[in-house]
Amino acid sequence: MSCIIFYEKPGCATNRLQKELLRSAGIELEVRNLLHEAWTPERLRPFFGALPVAEWFNPSAPAIKYGELDPAGLTAEQALALMVAHPLLIRRPLIRCGMRYMVDFDLIGINAWLPCHGRLPALAPDISGCRPAASASR
After folding, report:
1. Digit-coded pLDDT (tens) for 57-87
2. Active site residues
3. Between β-strands 94-97 and 100-103, what pairing exists: parallel, antiparallel or unpaired?
């Protein structure tokens, strides 16, 4: 049984580095394609916790990057509907460990979840956000 379900966009170089770091600490991952999940607002909402709605979005998604969508003015319901219809808008990775949920990659938060595992290095490189692989698109 895996400890962490890691929802990624295949080809994302940053997600690859994040998975490598988790695995190097002995954490077993179940990796899923964020773009092919059957998301519903109810399934997606727990990942965002108390974050402001604008922080739920992938700032590198073309619609946001090129100014076609401004997440700052959206309600939670509007944001979730857009993300269910267009999963590329979802900030990644999404991480689930039991009934704990996280969006983006937070080493401090993950370490707090995993007291029984090897701890992740406190001085790990900043591997949050999204950096494309040479041929990957966001």
Report:
1. 999 999 999 999 999 999 999 999 999 999 9
2. 12
3. antiparallel
Q: Please list the alpha-helical segments (H only) found in the chain.
A: 13-24, 41-44, 62-65, 76-85, 107-113
For the chain, what is the mean pLDDT? 86
Q: Residue 58 in contact with residue 89, Cβ under 8 Å?
A: yes
Domains of the chain: 4-113 (3.40.30.10)
Predicted TM-score (pTM) of the model is 0.83
Q: How many residues does the chain have?
A: 138
Edge to edge, the sheet with strand 94-97 lists 29-33, 4-8, 94-97, 100-103
